[in-house]
Amino acid sequence: MTSINAGGSKNRRSNRRLIIWILAGLAVGIAGGTVRASQTATRNSKSLSQWVAISEYENLALLEYKHADPIQGKQSLQDLLHFMDSAEARGLIGDKHTLEFDRTLTYVRIAFLDEKSGKAESVHEDMIAAVEHSRKLGKENVSEETLRRDVAGLDSYIP
Amino acid sequence: MLRSLFKVLSLITGAAIGFVVSYSAVTVRVAAMSPVGLGLGKSSDPFFRTYTEMVRLGEAEAVIHSCANKANIASQQAMSRSESGVITELRTDAKSAGLTPPLDLVAAIVELRSSLRDPKLSGPDQERDIRNLVRQSGWPDDSEAAFKMVLTRLDGACQ
Fold this sequence. Notes:
B: mainly alpha
């Protein structure tokens, strides 16, 4: 009888220890899962939202850039830059590379519009900004001419 | 030996369950709050609301342009109604956020699409509305044909 009691008590103690190990594992798993999901799901969600929101804004601004008068077109592009800056300042950006690419293209397009309006000094400043943002993409030796040619090529796809 | 194995197995099982549960919970929460997901995250910041509405506008445009949806008139009409609602909200929120996206242009696109879809809706009043919206967007006075061509190109190629 005593040995049966001793055996039961030993089993209970052993089960309790296993539960403690399971709970410890749960705590570690919950912490790991939360950290991992915060990194991946949050980043993916931010990137997706960024692509949709900025693309839509950009599509509309590009229609203005191509078809509206240069003043309105420039205003739309500057507004697009303001939209990107505000999104970045609020931590809504998940893909900085795409953002810098969009900024580069936008500065070159502003330069094209300034050129149309005969503002040579502004053109120079816009192109400096474009090259600067392009360098953030890792293109150290990019030239103004390359950027102009690339953007002119892309502009042919604007409806 | 067997006891140590049980301990390790308990720890691993607990960790796996904890990881899966917390990862799923955080992912669902991110999807619910994300502008590109359910968009349940409410904010008093007008910029954040503008950003979310721009995502909704982009999503509606994507549905309208999708090949699978081209023949579904009911869905196209629902998307146009949704776009009109988003444009109304954007007019208030973008202004509060200090942004001026070309909303008159989107409104003109939505109106022209509706009239092309349902000729009963088109008439001199609607044509005048569209002309005014396009003109307010900075397009030249005689850009009616160009605007129609842009919409044809925009909607012509499905994605």
